[in-house]
Automatic annotation (TrEMBL):
InterPro entries noted in UniProt: CD2/SLAM_rcpt (IPR015631), Ig-like_dom_sf (IPR036179), Ig-like_fold (IPR013783)
First and last residue of the signal peptide: 1-16
Parts of the chain that traverse the membrane: 229-246
PANTHER family: HEPATIC AND GLIAL CELL ADHESION MOLECULE, SIGNALING LYMPHOCYTIC ACTIVATION MOLECULE
Keywords in alphabetical order: Glycoprotein, Membrane, Signal, Transmembrane, Transmembrane helix
GO cellular component labels: cell-cell junction; membrane
Name assigned to this protein: Uncharacterized protein si:cabz01074946.1 isoform X1
Organism of derivation: Lates calcarifer
Length: 268
């Protein structure tokens, strides 16, 4: 009992705080915060992983060891002032739970846990030419933008700006079509941007239009179906708007035709 009292008097234990979740991108660097009190002067830092508390980085008796296991060799930096741990060149295998045990010069200790999520950067969207149809003084051109990433939003930008341009997007958010009129002398830069949360990436093309060229459709089955679906959606949406705007006139015309050709009463 006396030994227990001595231990309690020598070490003041601070309970661990709730889990923290840290996110990093594949191939980038990420810093795992120890969440140590800034007023502390740390005398011991122990970062570990797995349920058996395998040490990956330690600071004890004024010495730092960050070469403990092969997975992290050459990829760690330990800040002995804050207790923070930086991992360089993130890999998918780094996605796990991390624990840090801290003790200050006053023999106060704390244990903090966090989970690291490793995400992938968005891949650049791909722009392909669907068709180029010659018209007087130029051509109508259809461009297709797609991304292998799911859940992204697309946007188009044309420099210099042109009014003869229309964009349509697949409701699934996987690709979109851009229609524009180009004259033979114009040089337009078409940029498609895919974005998700706080990240975005872009691709740019500068297609050329020769009015004398024959149309060269480059539509595969998937693109044809997607284009038909988008055009059908535009047509259907236009019809719904027209019906909504002229709903009163349509009701009146329908009532007139009904009364004229299908009277509700039969003369005796």
């Amino acid at each position: 009992m006396s030994r227990l009292l001595v231990l309690i008097s020598c070490f003041q234990v601070v309970l661990a705080e709730p889990y923290a979740v840290i996110s990093g991108y594949l191939g980038d660097n990420v810093t795992l915060p120890s969440r140590a009190d800034r007023s502390w002067h740390l005398s011991k830092i122990e970062w570990s992983v797995f349920t058996n508390n395998t040490w990956i980085a330690t600071y004890r008796n004024g010495k730092t060891n960050i070469e403990r296991i092969s997975q992290f060799k050459g990829r760690l930096s330990l800040n002995i002032t804050s207790g923070d741990l930086m991992i360089h060149g993130l890999t998918k295998e780094d996605c796990m739970e991390y624990t840090v045990d801290l003790i200050n010069t006053e023999k106060t200790s704390t244990v903090n846990k966090l989970r690291l999520q490793v995400k992938e950067h968005l891949q650049k969207p791909t722009i392909t030419t669907l068709f180029s149809t010659p018209e007087k003084g130029g051509c109508w051109m259809g461009l297709h933008c797609s991304s292998p990433d799911r859940g992204v939003n697309f946007s188009w930008q044309v420099i210099p700006d042109t009014r003869a341009a229309f964009s349509m997007w697949d409701p699934s958010g996987n690709h979109g079509v851009f229609l524009a009129f180009l004259n033979t002398t114009s040089k337009l830069n078409f940029t498609c941007t895919s974005s998700r949360t706080m990240e975005s990436t872009s691709s740019t093309v500068t297609p050329q239009c020769n009015a004398g060229d024959k149309p060269e459709p480059q539509l595969d089955c998937r693109d044809r179906c997607g284009l038909c679906f988008l055009l059908g959606g535009v047509i259907m949406g236009t019809c719904i708007i027209i019906v909504y705007i002229f709903r009163e006139e349509i009701k009146a015309a329908w009532k007139y035709l009904s009364d004229k050709f299908c009277p509700s009463t039969i003369p005796s």
